[in-house]
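Predict the 3D structure for this chain.
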Amino acid sequence: MALSIAVLLAPILAAAATASRSGAMGPLLRISERKIDFGTVEQFQQIHHSLILSNEGDAPLRILKIDTSCGCTAGVPADSIVPPGKEVKIDVSFSTRDYEGEQEKTLTLHTNDPGEPLVRIDVVADVKPFVRMDPPDGIIRFEPVHRGATRTMKVRFSADAGFALTVDEIAGGEDRLTVKREPEKTSKEEAVNLLFSLRPDAPPGQFRAIIKIKTKGKIARTFNLIAMGDVISYFVVGSDVRMQLPTVKDGQGVSSHVTITCDGSKPYKLTKVTSNLPYLTGTILRNDKGYDVVIMVDAQAPAGDYIGKVDIQTTDPTQPVIQLLVKGYVRK
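Done. Predicted structure below.
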């Protein structure tokens, strides 16, 4: 009887052992590293690094695809199939052309490894630009300046010695700003300082100008500089001249206000509010420091987004009109 039971169980035990072995095996991915740090690199370079992908399983490992977080990064395997016990190189590249400063990109490997079908690889680098701009955020701010006065802000472009750096073209903001070039050179660095000065005849009001600056040298580049400021006269707008009004809904109009102060030295007044949209109106109210101008949108305004211009008339001959840009949405 014992022999008969052993004979009966033998095929079952053999099948279970086979199932156990097959369940434990298959493609098994191993990768040499999950983060690639290129360190400090120069701009306009194509840099490379090799990853080693190995298969410790007993079935072929297939690289189905490789996704990247941007077109500047790529991963190219030497082969898309890795036999058991073998390895393959993946060439990871990063183009620094359009970047500067600390960068973080990713590659995602899709494979047929059932235990880890997706593998994320982090790619980091600190890109040193050939031409550096200071301020690095590309914004200069002219704090409120009285009309007729001036103020100067410096923007510095620099490069390593031998780059032959020049500023070839400056375009934008000419109605409010003048610019002067001042070259500078040391044994390690060469630079061009741009001195932007507010024109004494700049019109009153808030402004935002985009200035395109083209530099030349071993490599040509174009920078966008934003110049912001406020030229004040007798009347000063207490907030941004661009207003975002609440949504008009359920047949109810909406309103908001802007405060306009005056220095009290002259008897100038705000006289009238007009706009380019029939459903956008305004009312002038006095306060202890000047005026509150209430801007209203009628409930009958058509549905959708709107952008309107509001002109506030004054008796100041140097500032006859204060203009506001009003945006909002009407929901029906």
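The two ends are 88 Å apart (CA to CA).
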